[in-house]
Amino acid sequence: MEKRHIAILGATGSIGTQTLDVVRQHPDLFEVELLTAGSNAALLVAEAREFNPAAVVICNESRYDEVAEALRDTDVKVFTGTQSMCDLVAAEAVDIVVAAMVGFSGLRPTVAALKAGKAVALANKETLVAAGPIVMDLSRRCHAPILPVDSEHSAIFQCLLAAGSNKVKTLHLTASGGPFRGWPREHIALARKEDALKHPNWSMGAKITIDSATMMNKGFEVIEACRLFDVTPEEVHVVVHPESVIHSMIEFEDGAVLAQLGCPDMRVPIQFALAFPERFPLKGEKLDFARIRRLTFEEPDREKFPCLGLAFEAVRRGGNIPCAMNAANEAAVKAYLEDRIRFYDISEVIAGTMAETPFIGEPSLDDIFATNEAAYAAAEEKIARK
Ligand code: NDP
Ligand code: MG
Description:
Layout: E1 4-9, H1 14-25, E2 30-37, H2 41-51, E3 55-58, H3 64-70, E4 77-80, H4 82-89, E5 96-99, H5 107-115, E6 119-122, H6 125-141, E7 146-148, H7 151-163, E8 168-175, H8 185-190, H9 193-196, H10 206-214, H11 216-229, E9 236-240, E10 246-252, E11 257-261, H12 267-275, H13 289-292, H14 306-317, H15 321-337, H16 343-356, H17 365-385
Parallel strand pairs: 1-2, 1-5, 2-3, 3-4, 5-6, 6-7, 8-9
Antiparallel strand pairs: 8-10, 10-11
Helix pairs in contact: 2-3, 4-5, 5-6, 6-11, 6-15, 10-15, 11-14, 14-16, 15-16, 15-17, 16-17
The structure holds NADPH dihydro-nicotinamide-adenine-dinucleotide phosphate (NDP) and magnesium ion.
């Protein structure tokens, strides 16, 4: 494989740092062109010193001086603000953009990368939830492939490669069930962020960890699957699989099922997206079947985890409703992490916001930005009344 030059948006986060670990293991395959962060100046500087990219962006302007000062003795160019991120992903030298920012903030730079015809290794699922049809259309028109990083979608993508042109009947998305699987509803209702942040199988950023506890993460992934693989929500089935060994499966019309398995390690799907279609060694734990002994499955509990149903409703209604749902979720998860609301307030705020959002059937990108802003504000009003 010819060396690939990569830009990492959200380089200081869980996915960003694991992407750099993949690069660290394969300096002959990958070279870092651009690293971006929100506010974590110290880590961005350390990463820049180790990987020597052409440029870094610290989005929070108040941290710019700190980063610029610390990199003064290097060749690394330092920028600030979202716009510079959008300009720099389009640079000639960049082959692949890893979209690993969290939330709606990832949409604008991802759109910029696609418009510039760059391959996008997509972790930032909120981009596909909020603006899926627009993003997929851009990918097609600009010949800019989107390679899934989310473990379930990487699994389905890998299975589909083996499916050839055969029709697939169902995508089975596996879910760990999160930290509250099996808890009585009364206990979940009182759960604090400290409980929600203890994910059983994956170590991730705070927002996605709360999304996993509410199962909104799985709801987002249903929408992500519909967009990436052009299927209807009826063709996506969620199954709880607490061991997180099977990352997802596809079922054919004759009942045969293909699955992709592995240890829960995000570096595997990250490397697959970066090196596609080739595979290379990767250090880390590997499956030991005799030690695992058994794999278990159950239906998700939709009463205890109403966010999953809300996501199915949002994708069936379509238009700007998934965008409103995402915005309300972002506001509610922030409030929950700040101890301003309780666990089930999250789903109530989202349901209320979705119900009030004026429907736009075929939103433009401007409509998406307007819906995001209005729904976020509407959700915040509801939160303030809790
Ligand atoms: P983290 O919170 O760990 O990292 C988020 C990254 O985005 C950080 O680099 C952060 O910078 C940056 N960032 C946050 N807000 C802004 C902003 N407004 N402007 C610019 N940069 C910003 O998140 P994760 O790595 O866990 O998740 C990233 C995305 O990947 C999410 O969409 C998530 O759903 C998805 N994903 C994550 C998985 C995981 O295992 N973690 C698995 C599958 C999908 P700073 O550090 O400076 O705040
Ligand atoms: Mg996932």
